[in-house]
Amino acid sequence: MRGFLLALGFLTRLPVPALVATDADFATAIRCYPLVGLVIGMLVAGAGWLGMQVEPWVGALAALATWVGVTGALHLDGLADLADGLGAAHGDRDRLIAVMADPHVGSFGVVALVMQLLAKLVLLHALLPLGWWPVALIPFASRIGPLLWARLLPPLKPGLGARVATAVRRRDLIGWALLLLAGAVAAPFLLAAFALIAGYLGWLRARLGGVNGDAHGAGIEIVEMGLLLAAVIVGTP
């Protein structure tokens, strides 16, 4: 429960009890990221269903607003930083990492944010006729990614990221992967999560040679959008 509350407090803006925690505590909390994703997904799906009672676009907007609000745009920030880095790097890895560390948002980041939000809005609207409950599983599936990326990629700098890498155990990955497979029995589009998470892992290894907080956040956003697209293409029960 302690790890879950720490993960919930880190990944969302939901109120949680104040806890005294060490870096090691925060590192091990990564094991609960998928469970926090399920909480986020349930809130998103619920908001979408309520909005849908008014009008489909209202439902899509309510879901998206909840998605951004509950997470505090945490992962969108990572996506913007990665986009700025890629836009300015011109193939230079060191410059890519340096630009990602800059707290300012550039034009590439702004474009990436706008495109991501528009894509999510349109895809959420497209899912309305197919049912809302599978949407609750998308944030869950996407937050399995950081466990794999943290375990298999070196951190780009020392600190909490290095501790996180050692906190992810093999049994954590196996357990969440089995739960994802179980979810795919009811929602087959979730199988795309394996390809999306593994594909992003390969890209990070080739382009960055490691992972940091921004890369984790960007990866979550990319996997979420990919799963929304897969749900629209494959359809949901």
From TrEMBL:
<dbReference type="GO" id="GO:0005886">
    <property type="term" value="C:plasma membrane"/>
</dbReference>
<feature type="transmembrane region" description="Helical">
    <location>
        <begin position="28"/>
        <end position="50"/>
    </location>
</feature>
<keyword id="KW-0460">Magnesium</keyword>
<feature type="transmembrane region" description="Helical">
    <location>
        <begin position="130"/>
        <end position="153"/>
    </location>
</feature>
<comment type="pathway">
    <text>Cofactor biosynthesis; adenosylcobalamin biosynthesis; adenosylcobalamin from cob(II)yrinate a,c-diamide: step 7/7.</text>
</comment>
<protein>
    <recommendedName>
        <fullName>Adenosylcobinamide-GDP ribazoletransferase</fullName>
        <ecNumber>2.7.8.26</ecNumber>
    </recommendedName>
</protein>
<keyword id="KW-0169">Cobalamin biosynthesis</keyword>
<dbReference type="GO" id="GO:0008818">
    <property type="term" value="F:cobalamin 5'-phosphate synthase activity"/>
</dbReference>
<dbReference type="GO" id="GO:0009236">
    <property type="term" value="P:cobalamin biosynthetic process"/>
</dbReference>
<keyword id="KW-0808">Transferase</keyword>
<keyword id="KW-0472">Membrane</keyword>
<feature type="transmembrane region" description="Helical">
    <location>
        <begin position="215"/>
        <end position="234"/>
    </location>
</feature>
<keyword id="KW-1003">Cell membrane</keyword>
<dbReference type="Pfam" id="PF02654">
    <property type="entry name" value="CobS"/>
</dbReference>
<feature type="transmembrane region" description="Helical">
    <location>
        <begin position="57"/>
        <end position="76"/>
    </location>
</feature>
<dbReference type="GO" id="GO:0051073">
    <property type="term" value="F:adenosylcobinamide-GDP ribazoletransferase activity"/>
</dbReference>
<comment type="similarity">
    <text>Belongs to the CobS family.</text>
</comment>
<keyword id="KW-0812">Transmembrane</keyword>
<comment type="function">
    <text>Joins adenosylcobinamide-GDP and alpha-ribazole to generate adenosylcobalamin (Ado-cobalamin). Also synthesizes adenosylcobalamin 5'-phosphate from adenosylcobinamide-GDP and alpha-ribazole 5'-phosphate.</text>
</comment>
<keyword id="KW-1133">Transmembrane helix</keyword>
<dbReference type="InterPro" id="IPR003805">
    <property type="entry name" value="CobS"/>
</dbReference>
<feature type="transmembrane region" description="Helical">
    <location>
        <begin position="173"/>
        <end position="203"/>
    </location>
</feature>
<feature type="transmembrane region" description="Helical">
    <location>
        <begin position="96"/>
        <end position="118"/>
    </location>
</feature>
